[in-house]
Amino acid sequence: MKVLHVEAGKHFYGGARQVAFILEGLHARGIDNVLACPVGSDIATAAAPFATVVPMAMGGDADIALAGRLKTLIRTARPDVVHLHSRRGADLWGGVAARLAGVPCVLSRRVDNPEPRWLVMLKYRLYDHVITISEGIRDVLLAEGLAPEKVSCVRSALDATPWLVPVDRAAFCREFDLPADALTIAMAAQLIPRKGHRYLLDALPPLLAEFPALHAVLFGKGPLEAELRAEIAARGLADRVRLAGFRDDLPRWLGGADILAHPADMEGLGIALLQASAAGVPIVTSRAGGLPEAVADGVSGLLIPPGDVDALGAALRQLLADPALRRRLGDAGRARILAEFSIDAMVEGNLAVYRQVTGNRPS
Fold it and tell me: Average pLDDT in the 14-40 region?
């Protein structure tokens, strides 16, 4: 079997890493992979051992010509199935290209933001099947009118190995200029509005007064960086909140945090939460999208209503005040990741969908 994968993301964030896991797993099973991705994208290097990489211009939803470029690639590569892994025009124009070329098409849906029913009814006709990375996203699509037999949930996965290595706490404090006795809340997310950084900044002042050793380290980059930096300075928090940027070596550091906060308004599943659990870090996150699937309430972390700053502060306070609870949730979270979020299961789930859609199409 040959599969043409289309990933429009330029950076090696959570979604692109999942694509790399899938490519590696499919390659190990004898699947011939071709990857179309933007010129200069980070995934090209990671995918090279497991796929024929075809860089091309990808200009987003307005790039109508992308349909033609992908159709030409389909005609040349002759895949058995096209798998669209992202938005930014890859979903729409990739679906059009596959339909024009007469090749079965699968879409991965990684976000839980709703779409108008009329758009779902039109756009999703392009796809033979849709794979969601959480049951929460599947529920959104079903509520918008997509037929249940056309949507399968195959959860995102994690290679837990690098996250199991113990973190040198003293080195962690030195790396992020923290006191040796610091009590640390981390966030690991793109600096974009829906991730909820503003809620954490709102919740921090009373916690800082109650826990003098408390600091926050925010991992990630994005368009809100300048705004967040200015907000941190305006609130007088510059000595207590660090913007640590995007770190390729995050497995070396994330386990040094005492708590991971992820008060997102919406989220497909939340790879950073799986990573934190594998690292043994307890989590406070929102009861939104697929987040309750990534974090079991009272088992690996605490769930709060989306956008509820008071509830966020109360949950963080509960964990900050109880080291034994933090250890229990962290240990349980690691065990849950190892048991329920394997890469093999994700790869087999995707492969089963490929077999289904190719079997359902006439030769």
Answer: 95
Strand (E) or helix (H) holding 235: none
Q: What is the DSSP string of 300-325?
A: TEEEE-TT-HHHHHHHHHHHHT-HHH
**CATH 3.40.50.2000 segments of the chain:** 2-157+342-360, 161-340
Tell me which CATH homologous superfamily contains domain 2-157+342-360. Answer: Glycogen Phosphorylase B; (3.40.50.2000)
- Secondary structure of residue 341 in the 3-state scheme: coil
Q: What is the mean pLDDT of residues 177-199?
A: 96
Query: What is the fold, at CATH topology level, of the domain defined by 161-340?
Result: Rossmann fold (3.40.50)
CB atoms inside a 10 Å sphere around CB 234? 9
Cα 296 to the center of its chain, rounded Å: 17
pTM: 0.78
Number of C-beta neighbours around residue 116 at 10 A: 10
Cα–Cα nearest to 228, from 266, 189, 265: 189
* Residue from 77, 37, 40 nearest 53 by CA: 37
Which residue bears the tokens 């995934």? 43
What distance in Å separates the CA atoms of residue 103 and residue 80, rounded to the nearest whole number?
Answer: 7
